[in-house]
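Design request, tokens follow.
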């Protein structure tokens, strides 16, 4: 399956965003862990105290089995599905157990209205009963045992004996009320069936009377099975139809014989006549003899004349016989036609009688069905009345006690472990919510990613926080292999690629407020470039609170250069590291911003760029002074130093706006005094990459008598031997 690079990239971005969101959640919880733990411990303490102060409650349990109710007022032969019927039946029984009538009955049977925990003695009797009823219902719980026919009655009270007593009384009263309802239902059913039975008997009598009157009026005879009449009439019609068909065939055959004999006297039927055959044989013999005589005698011969006369007489007899046969065939035809007409008339009459019989029998059948229906209802009601009469005296209950309630030995509430778990969970959620709220309200820059997310600045590097003696900064910066120096080497690498032309020739380092570590960053960055064969000049431009101390008392510093005609080369101080040089701040002038606003500042920077590969300007803080915007405008690039978990976003944005108003070219930001252990586990790599251990600045001089924080890196002739402060920012 082909997957495009865009799809893979989108999936990777989505995965990264999900990972970042999860990490942010864990970081927030990790940062506020002590607050969350404190809230959890406080919640556990409150839960523990509240548990000890809560009055214990005891729960007694009684179980009953309920057999399915089988009695019905009218059994109509239809039943609901078993599962649905059972569920509805058990739900009905549970509702009956929670009824106010049963609770009031229990309160009266145990005289709970006289007990102060159930009802106020000052109330009227009716109100006390209502109060006791409400009290019982508020402590009662009915629990079905799975899909069985067993219900568990749970009752809660401050007294274990009272809990068991009320639970058992509820069960007993429920059984009694069930028997009463069953008896009342049976009695009502019996009266109901009796009324229906009287009405059914009256309807049956009326139906039978109507049937008898109709049968007598229409002349019906009870044969037991009416279908035999219809079957007899039907078979008669069928038989007559068959006879009619035969008669029609006979009539057609007779007509054909008659017509054939009339049209052709020499037909087969005539030739087959015995008399006619005799006459024809006689004529044949006479004709033969006559012809023989003519051969001998003349026609006038008496014997010949006699033979001719005999032949004529036989011919007359033949004609007479033919007429007689044709007349017989005509008679047969007429008889067959008459028979056919008679059968057809009989069939029509029988059909009319059958239709009339069936029409009258329909009404008879209707009346008969009414009689049968009324008789069935009457017999069913009579049978039901006998059953109800027999069952009315039976007092067996469908409810049986499985387990009676016993006084519980241990309280049901409060339970210490559950209370502590609930209190701890609520406190944990509350603490986590408060942590997220504080994290949302906290606008300080805590992690490197927020430099880009909240400020829109590129991340040039991170300076980790460390703990140690005051001279540790100097020792760490001297050792190029320690983690702090490695961090500045990383910043140097980022500065090399910060612009298309490489590292800017002059860089201004400033911050939002004092003490954020910009002076230390100046030294660290300068050392990183100096060890890479860059000639680096540090200009201490913070003439209000200089950060760098030297033992060269003859140098007038930056303030002297701006206020006099001294040369730059005469004021530069060499450091302990090769290729590293310093232009001190000089004496504190009364108007530093006015000095920096002169053209001479640009001349000094131009001369410095020509003499050195890199010029790093240590500027004062932005807020409250005009010095830094002026210096940032004069330099090729500006690096903003931000102290982790101290500098606020709004203040930094105001400082950046001031710098941008002077057309300062802000290259990026450095996050200082960053402690990964305070913000979350996923920033541990900032330490483990460089090696074990934690390094921090020593405490600042805020509580010291010295008002000027000095870095003693450039004391080349053993002048000032004071230890350098840990926070040189």
């Amino acid at each position: 399956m082909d997957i495009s690079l865009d799809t893979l990239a989108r999936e990777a971005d989505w995965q990264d965003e999900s990972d970042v969101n999860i990490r942010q959640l864990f970081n927030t919880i990790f940062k506020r862990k002590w607050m969350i733990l404190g809230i959890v411990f406080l919640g556990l303490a409150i839960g523990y105290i509240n548990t000890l102060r809560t009055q214990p409650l005891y729960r007694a349990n009684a179980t009953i089995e309920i057999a399915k109710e089988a009695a019905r007022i009218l059994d109509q032969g239809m039943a609901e599905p078993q599962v649905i019927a059972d569920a509805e039946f058990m739900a009905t029984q549970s509702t009956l157990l929670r009824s106010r009538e049963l609770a009031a009955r229990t309160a009266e049977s145990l005289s709970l209205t006289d007990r102060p925990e159930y009802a106020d003695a000052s109330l009227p009797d009716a109100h006390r009963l209502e109060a006791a009823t409400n009290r019982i219902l508020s402590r009662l719980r009915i629990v079905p045992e799975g899909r069985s026919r067993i219900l568990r009655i749970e009752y809660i009270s401050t007294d274990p004996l009272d809990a068991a007593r009320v639970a058992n009384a509820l069960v007993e009263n429920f059984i009694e009320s069930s028997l009463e309802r069953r008896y009342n239902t049976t009695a009502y059913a019996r009266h109901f069936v009796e009324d229906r039975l009287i009405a059914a008997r009256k309807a049956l009598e009326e139906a039978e009377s109507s049937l008898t009157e109709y049968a007598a009026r229409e002349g019906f005879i009870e044969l037991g099975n009416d279908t035999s009449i219809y079957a007899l009439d039907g078979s008669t019609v069928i038989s007559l139809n068959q006879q009619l068909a035969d008669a029609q065939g006979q009539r057609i055959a007779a007509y054909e014989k008659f017509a054939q004999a009339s049209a052709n006297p020499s037909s087969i039927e005539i030739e087959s006549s015995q008399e006619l055959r005799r006459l024809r044989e006689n004529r044949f013999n006479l004709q033969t003899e006559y012809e023989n005589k003519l051969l001998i005698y003349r026609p006038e011969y008496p014997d010949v004349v006699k033979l001719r006369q005999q032949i004529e007489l036989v011919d007359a007899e033949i004609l007479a016989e033919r007429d007689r046969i044709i007349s017989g065939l005509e008679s047969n035809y007429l008889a067959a036609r008459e028979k056919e007409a008679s059968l057809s008339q009989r069939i029509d009459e029988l059909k009319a009688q059958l239709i009339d019989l069936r029409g009258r029998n329909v009404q008879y059948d209707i009346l008969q069905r009414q009689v049968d229906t009324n008789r069935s209802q009457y017999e069913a009601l009579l049978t039901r009345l006998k059953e109800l009469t027999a069952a009315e005296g039976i007092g067996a209950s469908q409810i049986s006690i499985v387990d009676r309630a016993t006084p519980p030995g241990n309280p049901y509430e409060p339970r210490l472990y559950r209370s502590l778990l609930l209190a701890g969970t609520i406190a944990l959620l509350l603490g986590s919510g408060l942590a997220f709220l504080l994290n949302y309200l906290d606008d300080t820059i805590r992690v490197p990613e927020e430099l880009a997310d909240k400020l829109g600045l590129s991340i040039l590097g991170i300076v980790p926080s460390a703990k140690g003696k005051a001279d540790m900064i100097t020792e760490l910066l001297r050792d190029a292999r320690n983690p702090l120096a490695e961090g500045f080497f990383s910043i140097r690498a980022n500065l090399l690629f910060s612009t298309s032309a490489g590292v800017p020739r002059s860089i201004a380092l400033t911050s939002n407020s004092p003490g954020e570590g910009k002076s230390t960053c100046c030294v660290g960055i300068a050392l990183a470039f100096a060890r890479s064969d860059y000639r680096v000049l540090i200009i201490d431009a913070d003439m209000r609170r200089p950060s760098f101390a030297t033992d060269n008392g003859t140098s007038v510093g930056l303030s002297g250069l701006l206020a006099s005609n001294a040369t730059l080369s005469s004021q530069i101080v060499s450091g302990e590291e090769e290729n590293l040089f310093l232009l001190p701040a000089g004496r504190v002038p009364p108007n530093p911003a006015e000095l920096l606003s002169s053209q001479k500042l640009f001349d000094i920077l131009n001369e410095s760029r020509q003499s050195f590969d890199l010029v790093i300007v240590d500027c004062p803080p932005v807020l409250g002074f005009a010095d830094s915007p002026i210096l940032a405008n004069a330099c090729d690039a500006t690096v903003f130093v931000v102290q982790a978990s101290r500098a606020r976003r709004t203040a930094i944005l105001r400082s950046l706006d001031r710098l941008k108003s002077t057309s300062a070219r802000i290259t990026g930001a450095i996050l200082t005094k960053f402690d990964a252990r305070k913000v979350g586990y996923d920033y541990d790599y900032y330490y483990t990459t460089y090696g074990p251990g934690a390094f921090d600045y020593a405490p600042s001089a805020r509580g010291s008598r010295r008002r000027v924080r000095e870095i003693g890196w450039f004391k080349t002739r053993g002048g000032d031997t004071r230890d350098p402060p840990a926070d040189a920012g």
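Comment from the thread starter after seeing the answer: thanks! Confidence is low (pLDDT under 50) at residues 70-81, 223-232, 684-709, 715-729.
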